[in-house]
Every structure is written in structure tokens, then in C-alpha cells.
Amino acid sequence: MPKYSLIIPTYNESNYLPRLLDSVDEARACYRGEGDTIEVIVADNNSRDDTVKIARDRGCKVVHVAKRCIASVRNGGASAAEGVVLCFVDADMRIHPQTFNAIDRSIELGNAVAGATGITLERMSIGITLTYAIMLTVAWMTKIDTGVVFCRKSDFEAIGGYNESMNFGEDVRFLLEIRELGRGRGLELTRLSGAQALASTRKWDQFGEWHFLVMMAEIFRKGGRKADQNSEFVDRYWYGDQREP
User: Fold this and answer.
1) Are strands 4-10 and 38-44 parallel, antiparallel or unpaired?
2) From edge to edge, which strands make up the β-sheet containing 149-152?
3) Which of 8, 53, 55, 134 fits as disulfide partner to 60, beta carbons 3.0 to 4.6 Å?
């Protein structure tokens, strides 16, 4: 049985998936445990490019998820996972060589219900730097972070996975819910150090250097956490990108 299941949600990710899988191979090679205890699952959301072929050629387990909802795609990958620990990473990231060693250390300490590696960004600008500073401040205050997000499969199932009624913000809701689960056991969320994933800046490339601040203002204007999950704005920002083949 694998110890880790790394789940990658994809939709037309042929430009990014190969470099992510290269970084996974490097992390496997650096892992102090057995490399074959790490399975890689590509949960594909009806890609029309070479994403599925790339995944299969690289030895990944491929799961097809029809519903156009990122929470459903993450859950679809988790449903096929055999690992004791689930790890989730976006296809446009590259994981750190020490990712699995860092997660191992966190699990061995026994005081975390879930956690994340955090990220660094592949380029910086004034707008991106300000955005990143805000993100780091929030992550430091709440321990809710991104990058490679991990938890035990049993805990993932205990809270029902990602909320499929949400088209955005499902990742934050998931960590809030699993943090609450952990509190009952004296466990907490953890932010790992020294194993940040490298994240692309394609959203900034597409929407502009200051788009994140504008996006957050728009979400709060439309109701914050209760904002419409099915608005034109949500569809355009999270599901209407430029990855069409």
C-alpha cells in the first residue's frame, strides 16, 4: 500500500504537467523512504489536449471527473487514492525536492491534523510582491496555506472531503473544517518550512499585476464568504481561462 497519494487536478494542463511531474520524480529520488510508496493520481476534468496522454506515459493513475468543479475533481482523485496520506497540488506548480521528507517529519511529530508546504512564486513584480505579502500575513495568522496540502485519508473522509457546492474557496473551507476536526484531538494545522512549492504566475500574466487585490475587493463587494458561487465573475476568473487547446 502506498504511504502517499499525490493528487493533481487537471484541465488542459499539457504545458505545465510535465514540469510538475519532473519535480515529483526529483522529490521521489530525494525521499528517505521507499520511492514506490508514493503514487501520483491525475484527476482529469475533461481535458482536450495531451494532458491524459502525458499522465499515462509518465506512469500516473488517471481518474476522469466530468463535473466542472474543482472540488469535485479533487474529491475524484481522492476516491481513487490508496495512500494513507493524501497530498494535493495544482498542476501549474512544481514541488520542492524535500516535500515528502518534510511531510514525513510533520506526521512523525504527531501534532498536526493537516498542513501545507506554502509556495514561492516564479517571478515577482510590485503588484505580485504586495499580493504575496498579504497572502503570507494571512497564512501566518491562520496557518491556512497553499502549495502541497496534506492530511490523512481517514481525516479527509471524516469531513467529507472538499465541499462540492463551492466553485471557489473550497480549499480554504477544507482547511477550516479539518482544523476544527483536529481541535477535538488537540491537533492543529501546520505550515511546513523549507519545502515550498514553486507556483506559476499565470493568473497575473492573464489578468494583470494587481488583479488579486481587485478580485478580493469584488468578492467582498458581492458578499465575502457568502458570495455567489455561480456568477459570471466566478466562471470567468476560475473556469474561463486561456487553457483551451
Assistant:
1) parallel
2) 61-64, 38-44, 4-10, 85-88, 149-152, 112-116, 188-191
3) 55
CATH number, domain containing residue 138:
3.90.550.10
| Total domains in the fold of the chain | 1
Please tell me the distance from the alpha carbon of residue 116 to that of residue 100, in angstroms, as a whole number: 11
Residue 171 pLDDT: 95
In a domain, 145, yes or no: yes
**Does residue 244 form part of some domain?**
no
Alpha carbons 53 and 165: distance in angstroms, whole number: 30
Q: Estimate to the nearest angstrom the gap between the alpha carbon of 223 and the chain centroid.
A: 24
Collapsed DSSP state (helix, strand, coil) of residue 83:
coil
Q: Is 245 part of a structural domain of the chain?
A: no
Q: Which residues pair with 175 in a beta bridge?
A: none
39, β-bridge pairs: 5
Q: What angle do CA 153, 75, 154 make, to 5 degrees?
A: 15
Range of the structural domain that residue 106 is part of: 4-239
Cα 44 from chain centroid (whole Å):
14
Residue showing cell 501520483: 40
Cβ-in-10-Å burial (0-12, 13-18, 19+) of 91 comes to buried
> Could you give the CA distance from residue 89 to residue 4 in angstroms, rounded to a whole number?
13
User: Is 0.85 topped by the overall pTM?
Assistant: yes
Residue 49 CA to residue 11 CA, distance in Å, equals: 9
User: What does the angle CA 5 – CA 10 – CA 11 come to, to the nearest 5 degrees?
Assistant: 170
Q: How do residues 23-59 score in pLDDT, each as one tens digit?
A: 999 999 999 998 789 999 999 999 999 999 999 999 9
d(CA 96, CA 212): 25
Residue 233 has pLDDT above 80, yes or no: no
